[in-house]
Amino acid sequence: MSFSKEFSTLVEIMARLRDPENGCPWDIEQDFASIRHFTIEEAYEVADAIERKDYDDLCSELGDLLLQPVFHAQMASEAKLFDIEDVIRGINEKLIRRHPHIFDSKNELSSDSVLDQWENIKKDERKNRALKRGVETGEGLLDDITGALPALMRAEKLAKRVAKVGFDWPEASGALEKCREELAEVEVEMAGTSKEKIQGEIGDLLFSVANLARKCGVSPEAALSEANAKFVRRFAHVEARCAQNNVALERAGLDTLQEFWDEVRVLDKDAR
To answer: Per-domain residue ranges for the chain?
Structure first.
């Protein structure tokens, strides 16, 4: 089958699943809100397949992710809001509009220049959207950075956006010093009893760490994902060593657990 036929078949399958009389009861019951978490989950499963370099799984997960906009668009079509063709037309127009160096002037730009141009075009788009709503001043600089993002990823995006207007440290050392400052403030609040204040200061510390990662050219979300995976792998070693010694994990005690943990840390260092 051609690509267009395959995609048309997917759209037709989704319409049939949503058919009020002969469709799937579960699919019929869904609405935008009830499936939104599936959309997010599928995106994370795509990311997981990429991290594992499992390209057969990636192909499958991309299919699951592709189903989500088709599902949403089918529900929107039923409500006479928009359909999948509107979705595709919109992204086609946006890509052409945001790449004038390719589709218009044919100017050669560096990667950094392309990003600057992209941000300027997005800024104009935000202003135009606001004017359509009758808001003369336009949207705020940060208004379109959705609160639905994972907090660490959103922190990075917020910091990147304000950096575009000069609200940033000249060097990474400034961000590092801010982390030290925030850590000291956490220590001060830990001497008290207010969990609310401790949470506030830890939040400031995490935001500062996200900023430090950005200044070092590192994705804080990716860095934490790698750290999580490392922790899982290392603790699996701890569990295996407990099993070898016929020691129940919950009765091993901190000293033993730390000993096994240090073993795998040394192995990691030797493997570098």
So the answer is: 3-97, 104-144, 151-217, 222-271
